[in-house]
Design a protein that fits this description.
Elements (H helix, E strand, L loop, with lengths): L2 E6 L4 H15 L3 E8 L4 H18 L3 E7 L8 H14 L3 E5 L6 H17 L5 E4 L10 E4 L4 H9 L2 H4 L4 H16 L5 E6 H8 L2
Parallel strand pairs: 1-2, 1-4, 2-3, 4-5
Antiparallel strand pairs: 5-7, 6-7
């Protein structure tokens, strides 16, 4: 069975960025594990976010999940965050890892790539890492995934994050970006784009 580890700074990044790909892989029989690095400020807010995430991940077909419960904002490359990712890598032993791409403008999103690079070095194993786009488009994507057949499911999963949707219409934003990728690549009506994240990190000298 294929093992896919999806890492997010905040619960909903993964659904917005690569929810369609998660759903496709799960539908094809892959075992999907989602790891979230941060938590909400209050216990009450965090429990609401956990409930929303559980509903979204059930919609997408995520099998397992874990929270590192980092409170620091912005998120940093520290012992606790790296330890959490090392634990996910060693426990799950994925054949493919997804993270927010290194060029994301949100500082929490962007630093995930450095945390994961440090964790991979510490683990002593090589993992292929693909970067997904949350709100900052990838300048030169390396890979595209046609998610047309599961786009409705992705939209339903994003809608599960009701507290976040009250702030901004994330579903429409994700739909627009995926439609843009479809139009510009010709790979499908709705498409998710990815970069080879570790290669991008090395190119930036990180």
């Amino acid at each position: 069975m294929k093992q896919r580890l999806v890492i997010a700074a905040h619960a909903d990044d993964e659904t917005i960025g690569c929810g369609g790909t998660i759903s496709k892989y799960a539908e094809a029989g892959a075992d999907i594990f989602v790891g979230v690095l941060t938590r909400d400020a209050s216990d009450e807010q965090h429990q609401v976010r956990r409930d929303e995430a559980a509903a979204a991940w059930s919609t997408l077909g995520v099998a397992r999940s874990d929270w590192a419960m980092m409170r620091s904002h912005p998120l940093t490359v520290g012992e606790s965050s790296v330890d959490a990712v090392v634990g996910w890598l060693e426990t799950f032993r994925p054949d493919l890892v997804f993270i927010p791409h290194p060029g994301e403008q949100d500082p929490d999103h962007a630093v995930v790539s450095r945390i994961v690079a440090s964790a991979i070095l510490r683990s002593g194993h090589f993992f292929r890492v693909l970067g997904y786009e949350v709100w900052t488009p990838i300048l030169r994507p390396a890979l595209f995934e046609d998610i047309t057949d599961v786009m409705q499911r992705k939209m339903e999963a994003i809608q599960c994050f009701a507290t976040q949707m009250r702030e901004r219409d994330y579903a429409s934003g994700a739909e627009g970006l995926n439609r843009f990728r479809g139009v510009t690549t010709g790979n499908g009506r709705f498409v998710e784009a990815f970069t080879e994240a570790l290669r991008a990190i090395r190119a930036d000298g990180a």
